[in-house]
Structure formats: structure tokens, C-alpha cells
Design brief:
- This protein is of the alpha/beta class and 463 residues long.
- It folds into 2 domains: 67 residues, Peptidase S8 propeptide/proteinase inhibitor I9 (Alpha-Beta Plaits), CATH 3.30.70; 331 residues, Rossmann fold (3-Layer(aba) Sandwich).
- Helices cover 21% and strands 20% of the residues.
- The strands form 5 sheets. The chain has a 7-stranded parallel beta sheet, sandwiched between helices. Strands 4-5-3-6 form a 4-stranded antiparallel beta sheet, with helices on one face.
- Helix 5 runs parallel beside helix 6.
- The two termini are 56 Å apart.
Length: 463
Amino acid sequence: MKRSPSFHLALGSLVVIAAYILGVMSHSPKKTVAPTVVLTPAPAPTITTQLVIDSDLIIKFKDNAEPAGIKSLLNRLNAAVFNYDSLPGFSFQRVRSAMSLQELIDLYKSDPNVEYVEPNYLFHADETRPNDPFFKQMWGHSNTGQEIAGGPGGEPGADIDALTAWDVTTGSNNIVVAVIDSGIDYTHPDLKANMWINRDEVPGDGVDNDDNGVVDDIHGYNAVNNNGDPLDDADHGTHCAGIIGAVGDNGIGIAGINWKVKLMALKFLSVSGGGRLNDVIECINYVIKMKKRGVNVRIMSNSWGGGSYSRALEDAIKAANNAGILFVAAAGNDSQDTDHFPHYPSSYQIENVISVAALDRNDNLARFSNFGAESVHLGAPGVEIYSTVRNSSYRFMSGTSMATPYAAGVAALVLAREPRLSVKDLKKRLIESTTEVAALKGKTISGGRLNAARALKAGKMLP
């Protein structure tokens, strides 16, 4: 079959291969200098200065407490008192005393008018932080200015605010994201549990059990070899998949934007990084077909681009829109204004297409990233992004290829919370919930960075 011109991968360049030397920094305890004692034949009386501190306590007096007894106790301690008018007998008290907190508590407990006394306990917000050991390298999820790949830290807060978003939801196994790329290493321990499985197919029996035209398509489709094994042979698709949905809080590797999700693997890019028009159309066709068969595919993640305008590809993406599927696309790595130099497929003016530029950890537009005030919708982390690669490994990569799965991942997170949201409204939500970034003003439609927390809090189900 005659093939059309190759599409070239919007390939994130490998930035750093970091070796981690895990060590424990030991800190020598501070030495205590003993006070000098001077002995004299006739020592003067010793004057001891005690440290006076404020101690905060919550007191509950007994229902039958004597008012005179309470007053006597408070006067003796010279306590500042705040009473809770709707909670009889309760009070907050601040005592300025040389006694320790425990000594004060014991004193209160000994008073016959006191039912109980407690310290003014300190509470904090419950933060949904995963236990994955390499999460600290994922500045795009949570940027505290930490060192990345052994290099300097970035601007704190220049991230998608994943920790706040995860207080709302960490994803759903009911949402399927199709990753159209070089395939996915579905054996990776950080991805395996989140791989989509075709339940209507019997693995390894050599039969097209579900009669969809592909034999043994357990995790997706391989258009390069025209079979049901979309195993990655180039790392790129696996890296993108990890950003979207590496299993979170499993004690290994990293955490995807969605701790729970289903990843459908579609391979049209070969090991060389190139792919053909007919193969990507076959992948889109497969996704739409499975959607019509009841698979809840809501998003396509597309970290690739190149070639000229294709009406056939445009029509295929329109068909995906009609099927209720968001098409997230890389803006491209040519440092060009796509308002004047279109980049496909991200430049197709279709309702379901969202074009994503790349930002670094200081909220700067990546030097390689395309932009466009009328053609690129938003920016997302795309420089030195740590994620999964083949053979149970992890690696840093850069490119709008990495920014794209960030947007696809947040879209999946929103759908986990609001599964009935339309493609039109989902796209609008991602754009309107961005955080304004100076580097994107006049460079993108939204002028902002992807923000998962704001995208979720904009939902109807949240106050």
C-alpha cells in the first residue's frame, strides 16, 4: 500500500540522565556550653531567673462548678479567658507563667471545678501527597523550588497544583485516555495496573474474539505492524503515559496526574520516531470504534506533529469530536508563532482540539516551544519532566510532547469528578481555569498555565 508523507514526532529532547545518590546528611548536635561557676569564700545569695511563656489551654468546667472557685483559679493564674457562648463551660485560656505546659495542665486537673483540660492542639490541612519516591522530581505536579536533576530549583508554585487537586479526586478507573504515540510499555510496574484491558478479547488465543478487526488487542492497537500489540519500542509513548497515569501512592517510581485511570495504547510512531498519515488515521478509527462499542474513551493525547495540512486527518479528528472525544495536541517544538506558521494537528480549528505549549519550572515559555495568541490554547510543564520509560525505568525528557499529557491528564481528572461534561465544556474548563503567566500573555489564547486545582474547583459539584 502506498503510504503518504511521514509525520514527525514532536519529540521531547532527552535533557538529563540523573544518577541518584541517596544519602543521609548528618548534623552534629549543638554543643551546650556549661555556665562558669565561681567559688568564693562567702557566696552571695543566688538569684534564679525563670523563663516566662504563654501557654494556651482549652478548659471544660463541670456543670456544677462553683463560680467563686472558677474566679479564684483564674485570678491565681492571671489567665486571659475567652468563653464560647454556645458551649457552656468551655473556655480558651492563655496563661503567662513560668510553669511548663504540663505543670499547668496538672494544676487545672487538680481543681475540683475542672472537668477536663487539653492543650490547644495544632491541626493542619490534610494534604494528599503520594508516597512514590521520585515524586519530588515532578516539579510540574508540585513546585516548591526543589532541586531538579541536580540542577537549581524553579519558581515555587509554577506547577499545576496537583496536591490541591488530589484533595478533590485522584482519578477514576472509569475514564479511558487513548495515548496515540509510539505505544506504551504495558509491563512497566508503574503503569501495568492502569492499562486499559479489552475484556472482550482472550489474550494469546490468536482469535479476534470481539470481531473488531484486530486479533488479541488486549491493551490497544499497533498500526505500524497492523496487530494488537502496541508495546512501545521508543520510550516516548511510555513517558507520556506516565505523566497522565502512572499509578500513584504505590510506593514506587512516580505518580501520574491520575493515580487511577485507564490508558489505551495506540502505536503509529516507529522506533525511529516517524509515523504515517494512514497509520494515525487507523489509530483514531480504532479509538472511535471502541468508543461506539461502549469503551469510555474521552480523551486522545497526541504528542506529535509535522507535515502539511491534511483534510483526511482533519475529518478524522472531527469524527472524534462527534464521538465525544477531546483531542489534546502538542503545539510543536519549532519556536514559531503558529498563528503564521501552522503546526498540525494542533493547528486544526476544530471544537475538540486543544493546543499545548511548554513551560519551564520558572514559568518561562520553553525556548523550543511554539506559541500563538490565536492558535495555542495554554501552557503546561514541558522542560525536564521525569516520567516512565521502558524496562521499568524513568527518565527526564523535554518538549511540548510532555506538556500535552499534562493537559490530557488534567482533563481526565476533571472527568473523574464530572463524567458527563461535554467535550466543548471540558475544553472551555481547561482554558478558563488557567493561572495567568506573564510569559504566555499574548502568546496563547488563555495567557495562562494549566491548573488542575482550579479546573476541578470550577465544577458544579464543588462550592
